[in-house]
Write a structure and sequence with these properties.
Elements (H helix, E strand, L loop, with lengths): L1 E9 L5 E10 L4 E5 L6 H8 L7 E6 L2 E2 L8 H5 L2 E5 L10 H11 L4 H14 L15 H13 L5 E5 L7 H16 L3 E6 L2 H4 L5 E6 L2 E3 L6 H14 L1
Parallel strand pairs: 3-8, 3-9, 6-7, 7-8
Antiparallel strand pairs: 1-2, 1-4, 4-5, 9-10
Helix pairs in contact: 3-4, 3-5, 4-5, 5-6
Family: Belongs to the ABC transporter superfamily.
Subunit structure: Homodimer. Forms a membrane-associated complex with FtsX.
Organism: Methylotenera mobilis (strain JLW8 / ATCC BAA-1282 / DSM 17540)
Amino acid sequence: MIQFDKVTKRYPGSDEILKNISFNINAGEFVFLTGQSGAGKSTLLKLIAATERPTSGTVLIANQNVSQLKPSAIPFLRRRFGLIFQDHKLLYDRNCFENVILPLHINGITGQEAAKRVRAALDKVGLLHKEKAMPITLSGGEQQRLAIARAVVSRPSILLADEPTGNLDASYAADIMAIFYAFNQVGVTVIMSTHDALGMSATQNRVLHINQGTLSEPSLGTTNFNQESSAIERFTS
Ligand SMILES: Nc1ncnc2c1ncn2[C@@H]1O[C@H](COP(=O)(O)OP(=O)(O)OP(=O)(O)O)[C@@H](O)[C@H]1O
């Protein structure tokens, strides 16, 4: 479903952020993307979402070469994706219902059908009772759940989440992870970047690790992975 073939990414004036990276992600997988700050995790997610283009190499999404898509085709590609960021990107002058309905309105879905879908999405993340609340009145974990509702309301087949638990304490983070696992259980492909290499050592999910521009799939518990984990632990404790 997602194929990178010898992908290199350099921003104007930058060194190579990603170097000759190849991997495949199949429909329905749950993949963690790890690496230190600045390693290129967000860059890789942006290449998948076609908000950035590779400098060289090929990115195929559902067999479509992203670099060869006409600009008019990009919005259709993006409908496959639900995007979730660490900083939510919520609209603070609109209530929860209005935040979640926005992607539907952009896609021309309005009226009762839109309202039904918004309430279903809010329900999935446990926020149906907050539909009229303004985002600023929600806790950090609730705001992140609202961002997830907005990302899934268009029923994307792929969720790209960029450190969605980064600002949250452990219990909120566990709630958010449970929501992502629930979506994955019903067939949604989930690709999630995280600093939390420690947490990942407990997971059975596939891990793609970026280090100095190259990609590896560490077998969990390998020396490098643990060294980096303890560095993160020292930094955050
Ligand atoms: N638009 C841009 N122009 C130039 N350089 C950029 C741009 N976006 C990112 N970079 C650089 O690319 C590198 C990788 O950034 P990226 O945001 O992908 O890393 P990351 O692994 O997601 O980091 P973090 O965990 O801190 O969010 C960094 O050195 C960053 O400064």
